Amino acid sequence: xxxxxxxxxxxxxxxxxxxxxxxxxxxxxxxxxxxxxxxxxxxxxxxxxxxxxxxxxxxxxxxxxxxxxxxxxxxxxxxxxxxxxxxxxxxxxxxxxxxxxxxxxxxxxxxxx
Length: 113
Hints:
This protein is an all-alpha fold. Helix content is 73%, strand content 0%.
């Protein structure tokens, strides 16, 4: 019996891999623009999460096309770490809002003392 790689599922094979790469690239660029342009801390955190999800999309798509579950398992751990990061980030934003009554990143120099 010959050792063959499992075939790509039909649902995934209908969409070319280049479309996934293009979509992930667009999402990543939107995230970069959000971090660089916006001064609101919540928008910046959402932009960082968008970049993280673009990378997750690439990992899952390449993993599916190679019929290898390692990329999908890695994405599971990335999502778990991202959930913890969001909890800590939102706690920091709440404490900043309590101190200066704004979540504008430009006003954080008031916290120096």
